[in-house]
Amino acid sequence: MTAIASVRAPEPSSIPARSHLDWLESEAVYILREVAGEGVKPVLFFSGGKDSLVLLRLAEKAFHPGRFPFPLLHIDTGHNFKEVLEFRDRRAAELGERLIVRSVEDSMRRGSVRLRAANDSRNAAQSVTLLEAIAEHGFDAAIGGARRDEEKARAKERVFSFRDEFGQWDPRNQRPELWSLYNARVNSGEHVRVFPISNWTELDVWQYIAREQLQVPSIYFAHRRPVVRRKGLLVPVTDLTPPRRGERVEELSVRFRTVGDISCTCPVESGAGTPDEIIAETVLSRVTERGATRMDDQTSEVSMERRKKEGYF
Q1: Longest pairwise C-alpha distance within the chain
Q2: I need a labelling partner for 107 at 20 to 30 A (CA). Which of 24, 91, 131, 167 fits?
Q3: DSSP character at residue 123
Q4: What does the pLDDT look like over 124-163, one tens digit per residue?
Q5: 3-state per-residue secondary structure call for 150-217
Q6: What is the pTM of this model?
C-alpha cells in the first residue's frame, strides 16, 4: 500500500497579515481585469496626476508583462501645469503604452465649446471634449481615478457608473453591484465610467505612492511660489490667474494636493517635501483636497452633480 504523506497547514501566526493597502490593491486589480474582460473597447484616463499614476501602477500589476488591453486618454484644457504634462508624456513613454490626447482648444475651434470670455475656466468644458473623444474612438468603458471621498456628488457613483447615449449620468438609474458583481454591458453609443480606486482615500493614495516608491510630478511637493489669498484659498499667480486690484502677492512654501486646470486649482501652504511628510499632513487635515484647493468646487453640491450629469469626470 502506498503511503500518503500528510501536509500540515501552516500555523495561523506564520501567514503574513495583509494590510489595508493589499486589500485595496486586490480589489482594484480585480476591477481592472473585469472591465478588460467585459468591455469591448475600454480606455484609461491618465492626466499625470497622483490618482491616475496610481491607476497605472495597478494596471501594471493587473496585466504586465503583457501590454495594457486599453490605451491611455487625457483631455487637455490647454491650461494645465507644464510639470504635470511633462510627467504624463514621460511616464507613458516609459511604459510604452499608447497615449491619446484630445484638447478643449480643438473643441473650441470646432465650435462645440464656447466660453463667455477668453480667460474663463475650461475645466467644465472638458466634458464636451471627453464625450467627443469617446464617440470618436467608440470607447464603451472609461476607467478613471475618481474617489468617493473627494466630494458628495462623487460619493453617489457606483464602481461601474452607467452613462446613456448622450454621455449623461443619472444617479437614480444605476445598476446594483451586490457581491462585487459588475455589469459592463451597454448598447451602442452608451458607455460606463469605471472607478477602481473608488473606495480609496487621499491618505490611501499617498501611502500607496510611498509603498510603491512611485514618482509624482514635482508640484505635489513643497516649493516656493507667488500666491494671493482669495476667498480662503491660495491662488497661484500666473498669466491665467493674475492678482486682482488690492490683492497682495506673497511668496510662500506650497504644494498641490490635486492638479488640474491652472484657472481653478490652488495649492496649500506646506513644507512637505517627501511622501511620508505629505502622509503626516494628510492625517491631520480636516478639509478634503478638492474643498481646500479647487476654485470651481466653491459651489453647491447641486452644481457639481449637474456637471456630472452632463458628462463631467
Answers
A1: 96
A2: 91
A3: T
A4: 888 999 999 999 999 999 999 999 888 777 778 889 999 8
A5: CCCCHHHCCCEEEECCCCCCCCCCCCCCHHHCCCCCCCCCCEEEECCCCCCCHHHHHHHHHHHCCCCC
A6: 0.89
